[in-house]
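Hey,
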Amino acid sequence: EVQLVESGGGLVQAGGSLRLSCAASGFTFDDWTIGWFRQAPGKEREGVSCISNSDGSTYYPDSVKGRFTISSDNAKNTVELEMNSLKPEDTAVYYCAGVRNPTVPKAKVMGTIYPREFGSWGQGTQVTVSS
């Protein structure tokens, strides 16, 4: 059974940092792409980064580029999202999600990460950035 479990959310002041972690189990980690998404109340789910565990390639949309860093530890089956210079508009529930397909190249071409391409999801962790 595929399982993705997020941790590390919380409350932080604007300009601060948080590190989210996604622990994965139940599948061949090296073959998958892991993405981080967020959803604020009343808004659509938005992809904020993804990483291919097979080759380490990554993608970030402009909204977080330079502030967020995704990394994968294939030995521990974990993916982390380091978030710096946080803004109040980063407030959302953050989800990690996984898919076996090579999704990063398409994200780079299309300029976005499509949630519908990810079939396995964690339960989410709340990130709140106060002004």
